[in-house]
Amino acid sequence: MKIVTDSAADLPVNEVEELGVVVAPLSITFPDGEVKSDEITPDEFYDRLRLMRPKVPSTSQPSAGYFSDLYQKLAASGEEILSIHISSGLSGTLESARLGAEHVKDLLFTPVDSLTLSGGLRFQVMAAALAVRAGWTKQSILDLLEQIRANTEVIYTLDTLEYLARGGRIGRVQAIAGSILHLKPVISVDKRDGKYNSVGKERTLNKAMASIISYLADVYENEVPLWVTVLHGQFQEQAEQVAKLMRERFTVARLEILRISPVLGVHTGPGIVGVAAVPMGYMENIG
Hints:
Elements lengths: L1 E5 L6 H7 L2 E3 L2 E4 L2 E4 L5 H11 L5 E3 L3 H13 L4 E5 L7 H9 L7 E5 L5 H15 L4 H14 L1 E6 L3 H5 L17 E6 L6 E7 L2 H15 L6 E7 L3 H14 L2 E8 L2 H4 L6 E8 L8
Parallel strand pairs: 1-2, 1-6, 6-7, 11-12
Antiparallel strand pairs: 3-4, 3-5, 8-9, 8-13, 9-10, 11-13
């Protein structure tokens, strides 16, 4: 079985290679042309983004034709495909994958809506890849992904709502937008439909980061070992601060600090820092 995902999973290159995962790239369209999200570094992207202000580039999912060609190549080697993608509540990528699969004859294909993105999607992809390597049945893998999905939290704060507002991705967060764009929103990904949900708003980043910790404390018991991924755009110092707060408040079994994909940074700007967390028990003893 082959695991397919997309670049919204924020998988580092070494993990993609180690796990043997296939990543379908989302694209960023600048005034001078389109760039695949894996063809530009975060810092190069944010430099270009700042030069475009007040405009923002657009993003696009892989086409159904792209997925059709990809699945055809994988099917030619006899692979069954488990395709795990960014939340259908935030992107049409999963639908493109489904449409592409329809054009491949005799394809053994199972689509999975992660109902999340970034570090939350990464947890699901990693677990699936490790379970495949360990010889798990497809149904056992799907059951595991459902458990991970139900117990993963993805929450972040932004230095400004400006980019979400310009890109039209503000959705249910719009209640705290408009004349108060200077406030620091705290936004989670709702596990019920995979859309952004406003958790609160603060006047400073420090208070917003503290709100992230408080939100997670309401979800996870102190003694439950967590796998924590801190993600940021161009906020290394703030990411290190969040990592410190997480270690002080929770039982952290594993923690890494990663950069979010430029294709997600289009809608957040460089000033984003957040956490993806899952109880370690769902991620260990797979392989």
